[in-house]
Amino acid sequence: MSEVTFVQGDTGPPIKATLKQKNDAGALVPVDLTAIGVDMVKFQMRRPDDKRYTVNAAATVVEAATGKVKYEWAANDLDVPGDYQSQWELTYLDGKVQTTEPPNTVTIRRQ
């Protein structure tokens, strides 16, 4: 799990990730988003004690072959201070959904 900190009211920089999964040998390797037929990637963020997402929006695939993605913050995404859990959700061409594990921590500190 990793942790990223922003200041209340920030709108940048974007949050970036390299999506990874275990290969047959058990090593973590980047997910080749072109090879597995991913139709959409979403960035999701919520408080640990809340089931509702404060952010649940389309992300951008930066480099499909190496699993690099990013999410550009919207105007109000980082307005409420606190700790949040974030994850990435992959929707495949056949409609199946996979969510990254483990969730990461995003901290928004007061201005």
Topology (SSEs and partners):
Layout: E1 3-7, E2 15-18, E3 20-22, E4 28-30, E5 38-46, E6 55-58, E7 60-63, E8 68-71, E9 82-92, E10 97-99, E11 104-109
Count the beta strands. 11
Helical stretch tally: 0
State the distance separating the first and last CA atoms: 25 Å
Question: Roughly what percent helix?
Answer: under 10%
Estimate nothing, just give the exact number of structural domains: 1
Strand content: over 45%
> Could you list the spans in which at least 5 consecutive residues all have pLDDT below 50?
none
CATH architecture: Sandwich
- Main β-sheet description: 6 strands, mixed
Helices and strands, in N-to-C order? EEEEEEEEEEE
Mean pLDDT: 92
Shape: elongated
Structural class: mainly beta
CATH topology: Immunoglobulin-like
The first-level CATH class is given as: Mainly Beta
Radius of gyration from CA coordinates: 14 Å
In short:
Helix content is 0%, strand content 50%. The chain is mainly beta.
What this model shows, in words?
The chain has one domain: Immunoglobulin-like, CATH 2.60.40. Helix content is 0%, strand content 50%. The protein is elongated and about 45 Å long.
What keyword list fits this structure?
single chain, 111 residues, mainly beta, Immunoglobulin-like, 6-stranded mixed β-sheet, 3-stranded antiparallel β-sheet, 11 strands, 50% strand, elongated
